[in-house]
Amino acid sequence: MQDSSQPQFWEQRYQEGVMPWEGAELPAPARDFFSGQVPMRVLLPGCGSASDMPPLHAMGHQVLAVDFSQSALDLARRQWPGLADKLMLADFFQLDLPAFDCVFERAFLCALPIAMRKGYADGVARLVAPGGALAGVFFLAQTDRGPPFGIAEAQLEALLGNWFSLEEKQLLPTGLPVFRGQEHWMVWRRRKLDLDQALTA
């Protein structure tokens, strides 16, 4: 099974324990960002074992972690039993929820086949309230093979630019080997008026 758009792809990897994307801690810039915010509603799409959920919850944020792999969520529930009610088995692309103050990106965009990137952008634009943020760790790399699928910064800007403005970016000095030192902390601010709306207004 080689199609990373399907739950079975991830089920197999979690069941076999092949999870090189797991094990990272919440990076310092993320801690600085989230600790400086008033309590927010935060969505973690493609959460896997949801290791970023406990520190965000401890800062007072209302976190919902979503994945379409039952095995990933089973692992998350074993690791964080006190937060099991914050985990949801669901497909990000089918979510019908009120907009969040923030969507936290971590190894989700790079897990998706390249053809699904437009759907990702549309989804986060819909799920982040105007003035809110898409914040997280992005794998900026020139590679079409994956997962993880890297994306060039110019491609990411083209993907998100109609809805978001880049507010913050920095290279993370440490990270998981699978991402080869090419992870960047980024904060994208959701515009209150989309560019296409502005052009037609």
TrEMBL record:
Q: Which PROSITE patterns match?
A: SAM_MT_TPMT (PS51585)
Span of the signal peptide: none
Keywords from UniProt, A to Z, are: Methyltransferase, S-adenosyl-L-methionine, Transferase
Record-level Gene Ontology MF annotations: methyltransferase activity
Which GO BP terms apply?
methylation
Q: Name one Pfam family in it.
A: TPMT
- Specify whether Methyltransferase is a keyword of the entry: yes
Official protein name in the record? Methyltransferase domain-containing protein
**Annotated organism of origin:** Chromobacterium subtsugae
